[in-house]
Design goal:
Number of domains: 2
CATH superfamily of the largest domain: QueA-like
Number of helices: 8
CATH topology of the largest domain: QueA-like
CATH class of the largest domain: Alpha Beta
CATH architecture of the largest domain: 3-Layer(aba) Sandwich
Largest sheet: 9 strands, mixed
Strand content: 25-35%
Radius of gyration: 21 Å
Shape: globular
Order of helices and strands: EEHEEEEEEEEEHHEHEEHEHEEHHE
Number of strands: 18
Length: about 350
């Protein structure tokens, strides 16, 4: 039986020249470009990002992800003296350590990378008071490891770790990234993502104030972005794809703001796919708009009925990724691919440090 085009993975492919992938942020946070996709008029309008305020639906409620990126990539030494790189995948707020012989310990998941694969029970040392023991290898370089440390774990990652820039940024992380690869509204108590919710990187505090002054309300959710956000969909029929789980928090204040906005006929605009996934994941788990804390493995693809959001501000996504599939569920696959072709022909910058798209 022939697979409909909307369910064929290859239907979400497009040719992307390397020089269209942004390797560094724009000079200013709000100095990017914005492609406005108006579904009602079937139109594409390129504008400066600062014109967003003129293109958002009137009185919209904006919902953003306030999670903060941890410097989760850290380089240690094997007993042989060889280097070994570790990337923490378990969100820090979910870690519940126990004390043993003066050390805090916890089993977590991460990626281990070395010239020679570490053996099980090998110790990787990051500092005198920080190390891990490799336990069990899994698929795609994932390992179960035991972290062992003395002191504050977050502070140890901050001191010794590097920001885990996406694999398509072909340079080491820099001092500039410490500021620019975080949203200005990220919450230090929500530190634990291994990738930034990049649609939010365009906002300055001043621009958020302008939005507020113009009547746009702002609410926040938390989704700890996992490395799975970069994992390709591998199933030729996307209906066979098993989505990775991520931990989300929808506070009561945000749920109530959404309920109020909907009662008043005001649209809900997600700032980024992680915010959209949090809100739609909450609805799937609970069957209503309400506060929620827990995992979601929701996979949003064409045919999905959106229950919470009415539009989205997002960056441009990788070919054949779950993210381009998600926005195709909202705007239609042909419309999204047409917008991507327009963006490529008109010099838009793609991916994390790239330009933005508003689907309304």
């Amino acid at each position: 039986m022939e697979i409909p085009h909307d369910y064929l993975l290859e239907s979400y492919n497009y040719e992307l020249p390397e020089d269209c992938i942004a390797q560094s942020p724009a000079d200013r946070r709000d100095g990017s470009r914005l492609l406005v996709v108006d579904r009602a008029n079937d139109s594409l309008t390129p504008v400066p990002f600062t014109d967003l305020i003129d293109h958002l639906p009137e009185n919209a409620l904006l919902v953003a992800n306030n999670s903060r990126v941890i410097p989760a990539r850290i380089i240690g030494m094997k007993p042989t003296g060889g280097k070994c790189e570790f990337l923490l995948l378990t969100p820090l707020p979910l870690i519940e350590p126990i004390e043993r012989d003066g050390w805090m310990t916890v089993q977590v998941e991460g990626l281990l990378k070395a010239s020679k694969t570490p053996k099980p029970d090998a110790t990787i040392t990051f500092a005198d008071n920080f190390r891990l023991v490799a336990k069990e290898a899994g698929p795609f370089g994932r390992w179960q490891v035991e972290l062992q440390w003395q002191g504050d774990l977050t502070a140890l990652f901050q001191e010794h770790g590097h920001l885990p820039l996406p694999p398509y940024i072909k340079r080491p992380d820099s001092e500039e990234d410490k500021e620019r690869y975080q949203t200005t509204y990220s919450d230090t108590s929500k530190t634990g993502s291994v990738a930034a919710p990049t649609a939010g990187l365009h906002f300055t505090p001043e621009y958020r104030q302008m939005l507020k002054d113009k009547g746009f309300d702002w609410a926040e959710v938390t989704l700890y972005v996992g490395y799975g956000t970069f994992s390709p969909v591998r199933c030729p029929d996307i209906r066979d794809h098993e989505m990775h789980s991520e931990y989300i928090e929808v506070p009561d204040a945000t749920a109530q703001a959404i309920i109020k906005a909907k009662a008043e006929g005001r649209p809900i605009i997600a700032i980024g796919t992680t915010s959209a996934r949090s809100l739609e994941g909450m609805f799937r788990e609970c069957g209503e708009i309400t506060k929620y804390r827990g995992e979601t493995d929701i996979f949003i693809s064409p045919g999905y009925k959106f229950n919470v959001i009415d539009g989205i501000l997002t960056n441009f996504h990788l070919p054949e990724s779950s993210l381009i599939i998600m926005i195709s569920a909202l705007a239609g696959r042909n419309s999204v691919l047409s917008a991507y072709m327009y963006a490529l022909e008109n010099g838009f910058r793609f991916f994390s440090y790239g330009d933005a798209m508003l689907i309304k």
